[in-house]
Specification:
alpha/beta; globular; Serine Threonine Protein Phosphatase 5, Tetratricopeptide repeat
C-alpha cells in the first residue's frame, strides 16, 4: 500500500512531467517554420530517393501573358498550358526587364538587370564571361546542362553558351541571303525534337535543359491546322495560331516528363521573355515601347508536389526572380551580385506575398537613334514610365495604358520617379565591362550592314540634362528606318534608299539612318555619296567610331589602303580598344604579305578581345607567314576544337600542313572545309591542286570548274583549269579562251606570267612559233618584274 506521503511525491513528479511536456510542446509550437527553400527541398526529397531533381526551363519568346487562356484570353486554345497551370503555380503579374530577346534572356539566366549585365539591345554586345549563368551554377553542382535554341539572336556567340555542356544553336547561315537576327530561326517542333533526344540520353546525373521556343515571333506563319483555324482574324489571329502551335510543343515536353520512370524528379519552369505590340500604341512588333503588352509575360512553375498544384500568385514578380528560385529549389547557394529574389516564399504563401518593384527599359530609341531612352518602374497597379513627357498609369482599371494620370497623382509620380532613379544607379554600380560577340568576319559584316554591330552603348541618364526627343513623337520615323533595314536585308536597296532619304528629310539627326544610307549607297557603288553621309555624322561627332570604321571599309573597297590606315589610327586614338580598327590594319598588311607589320596589330586585336575567334585566326595566318608553324597550329587547332564550323579555320590549318609537306593531312582538311562550306572556292582550288599532285586529273579539273562557277571574277580558276587542259593536251581551243578570260581578270604579275606561259605552250602545240615567242616574251617581262620563277 502506497503511503499518503509517497503518493504526494508521485503526484508532484507527475504534475512536473506534465508541465514540462506542455512547456516542451509550447516551445516546439513557437519554433518558426523552416525557410521556404528548405521546405521546398524537403518536399522534393520526400519524392526522390537521392540526388537533385532535373530542371526544364522553357522560354516562350514574344509571348504576351494576356494572349494566353490561363490569363483569361479565350480566343486562343492552349490546353497544355491550362493543364500545367492546374498542376503548378501560376504568377499573375510577371514583368520582364526588356522588350528584346537577348537582354531579357540574359536577365532570366543571370538574375541581373540590364543595368548591370550590360546587354541592352540585340546584336550589340554579348553577355560578358564575368557573369555567372544558371547553367554555370548548376554545372558546378553536378548538373549536365543542355540548351536548344530557336533563333540566331540567342546563338552561343552572344554569351549565353556559358556553362552549357551542349548548346544546340546550329543555324545554317549559308542558306540565308537575309541575315537578320530575328528572322534566322527554327520551328518549335525541330527544337523540341533535339531537346527530347538529348534528355533521353541523360541517365547518370541530374540535367538542366533550356528549351527556347520562338514561334510567336514574326513572321506569323503557323503550320496547319493552326493556319486555317486562326487566319480569319488577321495579324492577331495568326499570332495566336503560333501560340497554339507552341502550346502543342509544350505538351510534348510535358508528356515526355510524365513518362519518365522518376517523373517526380523534375521541376519545370515556363517563362516569357517579352511580348508583342500587335498594333497597340501603334507598335506592330516589339523593342521600342515598354507598355505592358511588351513586358508583362507568363510565368509557371510546375512540380509533381500535390501541395503545390493549382496555385495562383497575385503578387507582382520579375523574370529576374526565376534564377534564384531554381537555385534555391535544388539547394544551391546564390551568387553575388544578384537582383532577383526567390519566389519560394510566395509559393507557400501566395495570398500574403508583397509585390516586388519591377524595372523595364528600352534603350533602342537612344542607342540606335539618339532619342531619349525609356525606363519604367511598375508597382502594380501603378506603372511609371520615364520619358521627356513622363507617364503614369493605373493598370488594374487601365490595362491598355491609355489614360495617363500623372496630373491627378503627381505626388506618387514624383516618388516613383525618384525610386526609379535610385534603382538604376544602385543596380548599375560596379558593372563590369561589356563584351563583343565572337563572330566570324562574314557574319560580322552582314550584321553590321543592318546596324546590329558597333553602335555605342553610352546612354542618356535620367538627369543628364540632355534635351532628347521623346520616342512617342518619333515612332513613325522609327518604323520607316526599321522597314528600310528589312529591305536592306532583302537586298531591296532602291526601296530602302527612298525611305531613308525621306526619314532624314524629316529628322536629319538620325545617325542610324545615315549609317544605313551609307550602306545602301555602298551597295549601289555610289561610294562618294556613301562617304558624304558619313562625313555629315563625323562633322557633328568627329570621334564617332562606327562611322570611322564604315568609312575605312569604303576606302578599302576603293583600294586606298594608306587612307584606311590613317582612318583606323584615328579611330584607335579615339578608342584605344577599337579591335575593329586593329583588325583592319592587320588585314591590310596581311594582304600585302607584310606579316611582320601585321603581327603587332593582329596581336593587339586579340589582346583587346581574346574571345574574338576571327582575330585569333588572323594571328595564326601571321604566324604561318612568319614560319612560326607550331604556334599557328596550336591556335588553329584550338579554334577547330571550340568552333567546329568556323569559316576558313580548317582551310588555314590545311595550308599549314601543306607548307610542311603533310599533303594527306592537308587534303583531308580542305575536304572538311568544303563539306562545311561548299562555296569555299579557295579550299576547292587548293584541294584540286593536291589532287593533280597525286595524278588525279579528272578530280583536279572538276574542282577548277567549281572554282570558276563559285568565283567567276577570280582569275585563278580560269588559268588553272586551262593549265590542266594544256598539260593533258586536250581542248586547246577552250584552254585558250580560259587563259584569255583569266588574263583579263589578273592583277598580279605572277598570274600574268602564268597566263602568258600557258598561251606560249598552246601556240607551241599548234606549231605557231611566232605567237608562242611573243607570248613567252611577255611572260618573261612579267616574271622579271615580279622576280618569280616558272
Amino acid at each position: 500500500m502506497i503511503s499518503r506521503k509517497r503518493f504526494s511525491y508521485l503526484w508532484i513528479i507527475l504534475i512536473g512531467l506534465v508541465s514540462l511536456g506542455g512547456l516542451f510542446l509550447l516551445v516546439r509550437g513557437l519554433q518558426p517554420d523552416p525557410p521556404p527553400a528548405r521546405k521546398f527541398q524537403k518536399l522534393l526529397r520526400s519524392r526522390r530517393a537521392a540526388g537533385r531533381p532535373n530542371i526544364i526551363l522553357v522560354t516562350l519568346d514574344t509571348t504576351r501573358a494576356d494572349h494566353l487562356s490561363i490569363y483569361g484570353n479565350k480566343s486562343v486554345e492552349t490546353p497544355h498550358l491550362e493543364q500545367l497551370a492546374r498542376e503548378g503555380i501560376l504568377f499573375e503579374q510577371c514583368v520582364s526587364s526588356s522588350p528584346f530577346t537577348l537582354p531579357s534572356h540574359c536577365s532570366i539566366l543571370t538574375g541581373l538587370l540590364p543595368t548591370y549585365h550590360g546587354v541592352r539591345i540585340n546584336g550589340n554586345t554579348a553577355l560578358a564571361d564575368s557573369h555567372l549563368t544558371l547553367a554555370e551554377k548548376l554545372g558546378e553542382s553536378g548538373y549536365r546542362c543542355g540548351a536548344f535554341i530557336g533563333a540566331f539572336v540567342l546563338d552561343g556567340r552572344w554569351g549565353l553558351k556559358q556553362g552549357f555542356h551542349h548548346y544546340d544553336d546550329q543555324f545554317d547561315l549559308e542558306k540565308y541571303k537575309r541575315l537578320d537576327l530575328g528572322l534566322v530561326q527554327r520551328r518549335g517542333d525541330v527544337v523540341v525534337d533535339a531537346a527530347l533526344h538529348w534528355m533521353n540520353e541523360q541517365k547518370e546525373v541530374p540535367f538542366f535543359a533550356w528549351i527556347h521556343l520562338y514561334d510567336p515571333h514574326v513572321p506569323y506563319e503557323p503550320p496547319e491546322p493552326y493556319l486555317s483555324r486562326y487566319s480569319g482574324r488577321g495579324m492577331p489571329g495568326l499570332y495566336d495560331g503560333e501560340i497554339a502551335f507552341m502550346d502543342e510543343q509544350i505538351g510534348r515536353i510535358d508528356r515526355w516528363m510524365k513518362e519518365l520512370p522518376h517523373s517526380a524528379d523534375t521541376v519545370m519552369a515556363l517563362i516569357g521573355d517579352h511580348g508583342e505590340g500587335l498594333g497597340e500604341h501603334g507598335e506592330t512588333t516589339h523593342g521600342y515601347y515598354i507598355y505592358d503588352y511588351a513586358v508583362r509575360v507568363p510565368l509557371l512553375l510546375v512540380t509533381s508536389i500535390p501541395r503545390l498544384q493549382g496555385i495562383r500568385v497575385p503578387a507582382q514578380v520579375r523574370t529576374i526572380d526565376l534564377y534564384p528560385t531554381l537555385l534555391e529549389a535544388v539547394g544551391i547557394s546564390l551568387p553575388e551580385p544578384l537582383h532577383g529574389q526567390s519566389l519560394l516564399p510566395l509559393v507557400f504563401a501566395p495570398k500574403q506575398g508583397q509585390s516586388r518593384p519591377a524595372y523595364s527599359e528600352s534603350l533602342a530609341p537612344n542607342i540606335q537613334f539618339g532619342w531619349s531612352p525609356l525606363y519604367s518602374l511598375r508597382k502594380y497597379p501603378l506603372k511609371f514610365i520615364e520619358a521627356p513627357r513622363p507617364e503614369l498609369y493605373e493598370l488594374e482599371n487601365d490595362p491598355g495604358e491609355l489614360s495617363d494620370i500623372k496630373l491627378k497623382r503627381s505626388v506618387e509620380m514624383k516618388r516613383m520617379q525618384q525610386e526609379l532613379k535610385r534603382l538604376i544607379e544602385e543596380t548599375g554600380r560596379g558593372a563590369p565591362p561589356t563584351q563583343v560577340a565572337d563572330l566570324d568576319r562574314e557574319t560580322m559584316n552582314r550584321l553590321a550592314s543592318l546596324g546590329y554591330l558597333g553602335s555605342t552603348t553610352t546612354t542618356a541618364s535620367i538627369e543628364s540634362g540632355q534635351k532628347l526627343a521623346d520616342p512617342k513623337d518619333k515612332y513613325a520615323v522609327y518604323e520607316a528606318v526599321t522597314q528600310a533595314s528589312e529591305w536592306i536585308a532583302q537586298e531591296k536597296i532602291t526601296e530602302a534608299v527612298a525611305v531613308l532619304e525621306n526619314a532624314l528629310r524629316e529628322d536629319p539627326a538620325i545617325t542610324q539612318a545615315r549609317l544605313f544610307l551609307a550602306t545602301c549607297y555602298q551597295k549601289q557603288k555610289r561610294l562618294a555619296e556613301a562617304k558624304a553621309q558619313l562625313d555629315v555624322i563625323l562633322q557633328s561627332d568627329s570621334n564617332h567610331i562606327q562611322s570611322l570604321i564604315t568609312l575605312a571599309n569604303i576606302l578599302l573597297q576603293e583600294r586606298k589602303e594608306d587612307d584606311v590606315l590613317a582612318i583606323c589610327r584615328k579611330a584607335i586614338a579615339v578608342d584605344p580598344k577599337s579591335s575593329q580598327a586593329y583588325m583592319l590594319i592587320g588585314d591590310i598588311y596581311l594582304g600585302r604579305k607584310d606579316y611582320a607589320e601585321a603581327l603587332p596589330n593582329v596581336q593587339k586585336a586579340v589582346d583587346i578581345q581574346p574571345k574574338m575567334t576571327q582575330s585569333r585566326q588572323n594571328l595564326a595566318i601571321c604566324l604561318i607567314g612568319l614560319h612560326r608553324y607550331s604556334e599557328a597550329e596550336t591556335i588553329l587547332r584550338s579554334i577547330v576544337a571550340e568552333h567546329d564550323r568556323f569559316p576558313l579555320a580548317r582551310f588555314h590549318l590545311a595550308l599549314l600542313q601543306e607548307e610542311q609537306g603533310r599533303f594527306e593531312e592537308a587534303k583531308k582538311l580542305y575536304r572538311e572545309e568544303i563539306d562545311h562550306y561548299p562555296k569555299a572556292y579557295n579550299a576547292r582550288f587548293n584541294y584540286g591542286k593536291l589532287l593533280l599532285r597525286e595524278g588525279d586529273l579528272p578530280g583536279y579539273l572538276s574542282q577548277m570548274e567549281e572554282v570558276i562557277s563559285l568565283a567567276p571574277q577570280q582569275p585563278q580558276g580560269y588559268l588553272f583549269l586551262a593549265r590542266g587542259l594544256v598539260n593533258d593536251g586536250i581542248q586547246l581551243d577552250r584552254a585558250e579562251e580560259l587563259v584569255r578570260k583569266g588574263l583579263s581578270l589578273a592583277g598580279g604579275d605572277e598570274l600574268l606570267t602564268l597566263g602568258y606561259l600557258l598561251l606560249a605552250d598552246i601556240y607551241s602545240r599548234r606549231g605557231d612559233a611566232d605567237s608562242a615567242a611573243d607570248a613567252l616574251a611577255k611572260a618573261r617581262r612579267f616574271q622579271k618584274q615580279k622576280g618569280v620563277t616558272s
